[in-house]
Design a protein that fits this description.
Layout lengths: L1 H15 L21 E4 L2 E4 L11 H19 L4 H12 L3 E2 L3 E3 L2 E7 L7 E5 L7 E4 L10 E8 L5 E8 L4 E8 L5 E10 L4 E2 L5 E6 L17 E6 L8 E4 L8 E6 L5 E7 L5 E7 L6 E4 L6 E7 L2 E6 L7 E6 L8 E4 L6 E8 L2 E8 L2 E8 L4 E5 L6 E4 L8 E7 L6 E6 L5 E5 L10 E9 L5 E9 L10 E4 L14 H8 L3 E5 L9 H5 L7 H16 L8 E6 L1 H12 L6 E5 L18 H4 L5 H10 L13 E7 L8 H13 L6 E6 L10 H18 L7
Parallel strand pairs: 34-35, 34-36, 36-37, 37-38, 38-39
Antiparallel strand pairs: 1-2, 3-5, 4-5, 5-6, 6-7, 8-9, 9-10, 10-11, 12-13, 13-14, 14-15, 16-17, 17-18, 18-19, 20-21, 21-22, 22-23, 24-25, 25-26, 26-27, 28-29, 29-30, 30-31, 32-33, 33-35
Helix pairs in contact: 3-4, 3-11, 6-7
């Protein structure tokens, strides 16, 4: 026993000192049963041998999960520097994190994390100096830190806080109400809420929320969700007496969200069939019947402020880069009148109304540009920011005199500023102290030509002085979908990776929102292949410009980005050393049958439609794995409580990949327990997963790890 211990220790010291790739003895993969299920899609038979893995509650699936995790964690445990990677990640993660303060009545409410707390804690204080008093600590709601805050809102009078909590990463949340005078929760509890928090009525006597009926049959984490409804809850009453504001019986597969105007005169209901395109309904609060203000679902409409008979609307109707326009609610036939016209060179990413001003957050080549306007759209000033940064925040009420914002870069975590709306002065509120020197790193933005010639940008971050010799381990991340923009942001894990000589890259693929709706549409539906072409072209550019090589290149993405990785590795398995698909949409033929997957049909198309099936089937990762192919070393990650992208996607993809893999590259799946799609994941689980992921990268790119 002592001899074995000495040998193992010697191996670890050698690997940590930077010797050659260590050998890992893998356990055999589980023998995964292949069934005989075959579906007919418009005359084409498609086999689905792992249909049984869709039942997450079955004993057979549980046994398979346990067996796969045994193989995976046995492999990871043999990487000699895994503990050192985790220790360094914990050091880098362990810095105090402060959110932007929110002024509520006489109090400022601030979210803080001392560094390694599983969940951030809400404090309140009378002024901006000092830490204040603890007000809500979600770490006390579960022993393992898996209950997280999903949403927080405050009543207009400051007396009440509504907070939504999610357990184990689920999209289902419960809304609770806390008395800000006493710090004690009331008896108000709202259940079966999804994709909604509490939106307070102006009189502070209650709030609006969206929910579903309690699931009657099937797994609450996988059963399809239908008939989202809008309710009003009066404080101090049971949920069973809440007033239903809106239900569309004819269209069960739509989302609905209700909210009042600032003065309470109007009530709006926004409806959507998916993740883009809305229909906006409205009525006076003293009426019962809704009318259509903007029909759906070609464009997006959102009321950012309404008072009297005037509504300010954020929309891409007639403006692919979005604009702000007014409409007269008493006579909507007059149409939209520009307040802030579309800027053809800037994407209007977000708008907030605070202190009687419009704060417009733009994207210019995927970095933030913020401009302050008056309510008539007259520019007051541009708010000066750092280069290649992302600004967020700028919340508050129309009567406020100040607001707060956060500024993040790839090499430094969020710094918080107080902004004086009258003078335009930004004052530092909080800058975290970190366990590395941000000046050791550099960020550049480059543009490359995709397959069809489209110019696509990406950010490249690394330590200063890195030699471009093709020998650098590189982490290429992408998303490319749902109008979501990828902008500069801090990651402690990437810092650790770059300390080991790695290069971190994020690419702004089509399908995202960085350049407006035209960019989004260029990567959705029948254009989805453009996203994969952009990603593959980014990899080829990095290789041809000597940043890395196929033997050193890892690709990563989560959710829609997991689909991206799955498609890229099946289309170009020769191009990557490592593939890291996280909580990915891998079965493109059946995604719409689970939870709210139907809402993605607007983005992807639906296999039930013959024309859309044709292009979906061509890239669906699960259906494009081929026997006799050597695929990259792959670490799939998912979680047992993921009710956004159900784990069956990853289960089936892992089983088929293990079945067809033709070389010795490992094909592993890491299945987190008591966790979901990613939101609210405890710090400890995040660090563990990052340690495993980056250790896997180092191992399979033969990186000389030194601590």
């Amino acid at each position: 026993m002592k001899k074995l211990t000495i040998i193992a220790l010697t191996a670890c010291l050698a690997a940590c000192a930077g010797n050659t790739k260590n050998t890992i003895a893998m356990l055999p993969y589980p023998e995964t049963f292949r069934g005989d299920v075959v579906d007919d899609y418009h005359g084409m038979p498609v086999a689905d041998p792992y249909r049984w893995l869709e039942d997450a509650d079955s004993a057979e699936t549980a046994a398979w999960v346990a067996a796969e995790n045994e193989v995976t964690f046995n492999y990871l445990s043999q990487i000699p520097y895994r503990d050192a990677v985790r220790a360094r990640l914990a050091e880098l993660w362990n810095y105090p994190k402060t959110g932007a303060p929110r002024k509520v009545g006489d109090w400022y409410f601030v979210s803080r994390n001392d560094g390694l707390q599983n969940q951030s804690v809400i404090y309140r204080q009378k002024g901006l100096e000092g830490e204040g008093e603890l007000f809500l600590d979600p770490n006390t709601l579960s022993a393992d830190g898996t209950v997280a805050l999903a949403d927080v809102s405050y009543s207009r009078d400051g007396r009440w806080m509504a907070y939504a909590v999610a357990s184990a990463g689920s999209d289902w949340v419960k809304i609770h109400v806390r008395d800000t005078e006493t710090g004690i929760d009331t008896q108000d509890v709202i259940e079966w809420v999804k994709f909604s928090g509490a939106t307070w009525a102006p009189d502070s006597k209650g709030f609006y929320y969206s929910c579903y009926e309690a699931p009657k049959d099937g797994n609450i984490y996988s059963v399809q969700n239908q008939h989202q409804m809008v309710y009003y809850h009066a404080l101090g009453t049971p949920q069973g007496t809440d007033i239903r504001i809106y239900r569309d019986s004819e269209h069960p597969l739509r989302y609905f969200h209700g909210y009042p105007s600032h003065d309470g005169k109007w009530l709006f209901v926004s409806g959507s069939e998916g993740t883009s395109g809305t229909e906006l309904l409205y009525r006076a609060t003293n009426q019962t019947a809704f009318k259509t203000l903007f029909p759906g679902f070609k464009y997006d409409y959102g009321v950012v402020h309404a008072e009297g008979d005037t509504a300010w609307v954020y929309t891409n109707d007639g403006a692919p880069n979005f604009r702000i326009a007014k409409i007269n609610l008493a006579n909507p036939a007059e149409g939209l009148i520009d307040v802030i016209a579309e800027n053809p060179s800037l994407k209007l990413e977000n708008i907030s109304v605070v202190g009687g001003y419009l704060i417009a957050q733009y994207l210019e080549n995927a970095t933030s540009k913020v401009v302050q306007y008056d309510m008539n759209g007259i520019e007051v000033r541009e708010i000066e920011l750092g280069e290649l940064a992302t600004a967020s925040g700028f919340g508050g009420e129309p009567e406020d005199t100040e607001t707060f914002y956060a500024l993040s870069t790839y090499t430094a975590p969020a710094t918080i500023y107080r902004y004086d709306l009258a003078t335009g002065t930004s004052t530092l509120y909080d800058r975290p102290t970190v366990a590395f020197d941000p000046d050791d790193f550099t960020t550049e933005q480059v543009f490359f030509a995709s397959k069809d010639g489209t110019q696509v940008p990406m950010f490249i971050v690394h330590k200063k002085g890195v030699k471009l010799n093709g020998a650098n381990p590189t982490y290429l991340y992408g998303y490319g979908g749902f109008n979501i923009s990828i902008t500069p942001g801090f990651s402690a894990a990437r810092i650790m990776f770059m300390e080991q000589g790695g290069i971190a890259v994020e690419v702004n693929l089509r399908g995202g929102g960085e350049f407006g709706e035209a960019w989004h549409e260029g990567g959705m539906l029948s254009n989805k292949q453009n996203v994969f072409d952009d990603f593959i072209s980014a990899a080829e550019w990095l290789i041809s410009n000597k940043y890395t090589s196929p033997a050193k290149l890892a690709i990563a993405g989560g959710s829609n980005g997991g689909l991206l990785v799955g498609a890229a590795m099946t289309q170009r398995p020769d191009l990557f050393a490592v593939a890291l698909p996280a909580v990915g949409v891998m079965d493109m033929l059946r995604y719409h049958r689970f939870t709210v997957g139907w809402g993605w049909s607007v983005e992807y198309g639906n296999a039930d439609n013959a024309e859309q099936f044709d292009y979906i089937y061509k890239y669906s990762p699960l259906h494009n794995l081929r026997a006799g192919t050597c695929y990259p070393a792959t670490l799939i990650t998912t979680a047992d409580h993921d009710d956004r992208v159900v784990p069956a996607h990853s289960f089936k993809f892992a089983a088929e990949l293990q079945h067809v893999q033709s070389c010795a590259n490992p094909t592993l799946i890491r299945i987190e327990t008591n966790a979901g799609h990613g939101a609210g994941k405890p710090t400890s689980k995040r660090i563990d997963e990052a340690a495993d992921t980056y250790s896997f990268i180092f191992q399979n790119t033969d990186t000389k790890v030194k601590f």
